[in-house]
Design a protein that fits this description.
- By secondary structure, the chain is an alpha/beta fold.
- It has two domains: 2-137 and 297-330, Quinone Oxidoreductase, Chain A, domain 1 (Alpha-Beta Complex), CATH 3.90.180; 143-273, NAD(P)-binding Rossmann-like Domain (Rossmann fold).
- The chain has nine helices and 18 strands.
- It has helices at residues 40-47, 138-149, 166-177, 189-198, 211-217, 232-238, 262-267, 280-292, 310-317; strands spanning 2-10, 13-20, 28-38, 74-81, 93-96, 99-100, 108-109, 112-113, 115-118, 122-124, 158-162, 181-186, 202-205, 222-227, 242-250, 271-273, 301-306, 326-330.
- Strands 3, 4, 5, 9, 10, 17 and 18 form a seven-stranded mixed β-sheet that branches.
- β12 (181-186), α4 (189-198) and β13 (202-205) form a beta-alpha-beta unit.
- Residues 64-98 form the Alcohol dehydrogenase-like N-terminal domain.
Length: 334
């Protein structure tokens, strides 16, 4: 069976071409895509050849993870569902994560149309409520949701989220929904303004001031720090402001630099959380939160491209000082 896919051919080389996908089994759902959402952080890391799997960095002399189909999230309509699939049927609008592909370094990928996807990685969407576009980044949205749900929250707790990207925005939304007072620490004024306009976080711009000094001057004691970008250096600067029995959530990719001094955490009884990946339960909860309207996604979309222009999308994503945040591939007219 043939499909059209975005392919990372080798390091920093992308194409859109026909690929082979397995014939669907009784467990599979075949989906005609409407939109797929590029996960800039994860996909860029693979694009640059920094990883060979989700948490395994590339090392010199190791396997080179190309070619492969990047991505892991999209929405569309079910074309057909196998005999063992009972929760969706032809015509349903769905969200799907990874799908099957042949002839690539990995036997799975995201940006593939039509997509042959195991039924366990397909969630039915309501025809009411938000537009399907709002759900097209649900795996990544779930990462932010997971970060924000990990630590206990008492109303009024002070939380700092490191990173003004998508995961940081959604972690901040989740903490704010749970009653925390959230500070979003980043370097991109246009992204920080989104959090302020959304009413879920107070911006801390690391370019304009020293965020630690700002928090110290306001006598803030931190109950929660969430690192979405993999910056232990920033965490260490914030650690003296953290209360006894506070919480660190580490979700950013650290490669081989993720060394934590447990003894220094123990001095303050800081609990370390290390969320990764997704689960069916968290995906369902994230979809529900988007439907309820408190976890918002569409205002974070900055760019849309026809799927056939994926190379152009990646040229913009990798440009110096790229303006991209949420980047969508539109498959409706392919």
């Amino acid at each position: 069976m043939k499909a059209l896919a975005v392919v990372f051919e080798t390091k920093e080389v992308v194409s859109v071409r026909t690929v082979e996908v397995p014939e669907p089994t009784d467990r599979d759902v075949v989906i005609e895509l409407e939109y797929s959402w590029i996960s800039i952080g994860t996909e860029s890391s693979f694009f640059r050849g920094e990883r060979i799997s989700g948490e395994v960095p590339y090392t010199e002399g190791g396997p080179w993870p190309f070619p492969h189909v990047p991505g892991y999230q999209k929405v569309g309509r079910v074309i057909s569902a196998g005999a063992e699939v009972t929760h969706v049927k032809a015509g349903d609008r769905v969200f799907a994560s990874v799908s099957k592909v042949d002839g690539m370094y990995f036997d799975f990928g995201g940006h593939i149309n039509p997509s042959v996807t195991d039924g366990s990685q397909v969630w039915k969407l309501s025809e009411d409520g938000p537009e399907p576009l709002a759900y097209s980044g649900t795996v990544l949205t779930q990462v932010g949701y997971n970060c924000g749900m990990r630590p206990p929250v008492t109303a009024g707790d002070i939380a700092v989220v490191i990173g003004d990207g998508l995961v940081g925005q959604w972690a901040a939304q989740t903490l704010a929904h749970r009653g925390a007072q959230v500070y979003l620490l980043g370097h991109r004024e246009e992204r920080l303004k989104l959090a302020l306009a959304g009413g879920y976080a107070i911006p801390l711009n690391g370019h304009n001031s020293d965020p630690v000094q700002v928090l110290e001057s306001e006598n803030k004691q931190l109950a929660i720090v969430i690192d979405t970008v993999g910056s232990l250096e920033t965490f260490r600067k914030l650690q003296p402001l953290m209360k006894h029995d506070s919480h660190l959530v580490s979700a950013g990719y650290l490669g081989e630099a993720g060394l934590i001094d447990i003894q220094k955490l123990r001095e303050q009884e800081i609990t370390l959380h290390t969320p990764s990946g997704w689960s069916a339960e968290r995906m369902a909860a994230t979809i529900a939160a988007i439907g309820e309207g408190w976890l918002t996604t569409e205002q974070l979309i900055t760019h849309r491209f026809p799927a056939t222009d994926a190379a152009e999308a990646w040229e913009l994503i990798t440009a110096p000082k790229s303006p991209c945040l949420g980047v969508i591939l539109d498959w409706r007219q392919v």
